[in-house]
Each structure stands twice: as C-alpha cells, then as structure tokens.
Amino acid sequence: MLNFVLCDDSLPSLNRLSRMLESIFIKNNIDAQVSLLASKPSEVLTYVNENKVDVLFLDINLNDTLNGCDVADLIRKKNKYIYIIFLTGHLEYALLAYKFKTFDYLPKPIVDERLEETVLRLIEDMHTEHTNFIKINNNKTIINADEINYIKKDGMKLVFCTSKQSYETYSSFSKFENCLPENFVRCHKSYIVNINNVTEFKNNENILELKNNQFCNIGAKYKTNFMEVFKNGNFTNAL
C-alpha cells in the first residue's frame, strides 16, 4: 500500500485534499492511503524520518520558519525516492519547485481533474524500471521494493511478503526478475529474498530470518551463489 502525506497550514485545505485523494483511490482502484495530515513542517520531517512515505503533497507557503522548499530540501538530502508534489497559489514558485526534483506542481485552488491526472501519472511512473516501486498486478497495487522481505512462489501464484501484509498475484518469477533491484537474490526454487531485510542467517538450518520475525528457506542448489552474494555483495546473476 502506498502512503501519502499532506502538508498545508490550512486545515480546511488539508481535509479537502484528503477527501479528493481518497475518492481518486476508490474510483481508480488504487491501493493507497493518506497516512498523515500535517499543518507544521516539523510534523512532516519527524514522520518521514520514522515512517515509510511514498508521496508528499507539500504547500510551499507555510506559516512557519520553514517553507515548503526548505522541507523538500531537507527531505531530499535523506530520501531521493519520495515523490514530492508542490501546492501553491503563487505561480512564480513553479520553476523553483522543480529544483527539488518534484514530480509535479499543482496551483491552488486544486481542481479534481488536474489532481486525478497527476495521481494516475504518478502511479504509472512508479512502476517503470527507473524507480524503486514494483507493480504486482493489474489492480494498481504498487509496493516500494524496500518493504518486501521475500517473494514466494506458491503454485501459479507469487506472494509478495512485507512486514505488514502479503500481496498475491498470478505470475512467475521470470516476469519480475528484470524489475527487481539487485539486492533481491534467489535463495530457493520457491523464494527470492531481499537481503537488505535479512536479520539473521541460520547456516546449519538453511533458514533466513527477516524483519518482523518472518522466515524463508535456502535451497541446496542456490546456497553457494546466495552465500557469495550475501557476504560479498556480488550481485551478478543473483536471480
């Protein structure tokens, strides 16, 4: 599920934007939620540091010592993957906004059609090979690759297991191999694991422990290659 964060010093504007986005999610069957409404930059910065955020709608003119550009600059120094969309009623800020690698710029007042077009274009952009997001089915279910602990083959299905929930789709490993970041390694005929989320390797038991007390197996056929990748970071032909 994608997490959207909204920041505007106007509470009515925040609530209106949240309602508009929720309607777009429902209408287009997008697996997403508004996870935070913030009126202060400090709330956003704290939340981004402690939680997974995929999309940030950020008002430029904030009634604070920090404006939206300041917030975007601080976030970009730590996270290059968050999609930032600026909001403002002052058109002169439009060019400045793109300095911070923003995805879009929405003038106020926000129009439903323009917002929906931006969200749909954003969803489409997320599952290109140039991003850290993976589209797993035709229902616009998109997952940040960092969240995935492992992918399991279960008959005709693939199960994408994150710390919070699992997502199923009828597909094969071969379809996703070219979409996965290099830190995803085949460790079993039925498992591809995100080695960045491995918390313990039980060598004698051929078991990997991952975040949130999840486990997956290492197959004998794949163990030598997996160990080379896991220890040395040699990602060549990891899948």
What topology does this entry show?
Layout: E1 2-7, H1 11-27, E2 32-38, H2 41-50, E3 55-59, H3 68-76, E4 83-88, H4 94-97, E5 104-107, H5 112-126, E6 133-135, E7 142-144, E8 148-154, E9 157-162, E10 166-170, H6 173-176, E11 184-188, E12 191-194, E13 198-202, E14 207-210, E15 214-217, H7 220-232
Parallel strand pairs: 1-2, 1-3, 3-4, 4-5
Antiparallel strand pairs: 6-7, 8-9, 8-12, 9-10, 11-12, 13-14, 14-15
Give a description of the structure:
The chain is an alpha/beta fold. It has 2 domains: 129 residues, 3-Layer(aba) Sandwich (Rossmann fold); 85 residues, LytTr DNA-binding domain (OB fold (Dihydrolipoamide Acetyltransferase, E2P), Beta Barrel). The strands form 4 sheets. A 5-stranded parallel β-sheet has the order 2-1-3-4-5, sandwiched between helices. The radius of gyration is 20 Å and the shape is elongated.
- Helix content class: 25-40%
Shape: elongated
Structural class category: alpha/beta
- Rg to the nearest angstrom? 20 Å
* C-alpha termini separation: 25 Å
Major sheet: order of its strands? 2-1-3-4-5
Question: What's the helix-strand series?
Answer: EHEHEHEHEHEEEEEHEEEEEH
Number of self-contained structural domains: 2
CATH superfamily of the largest domain: Response regulator
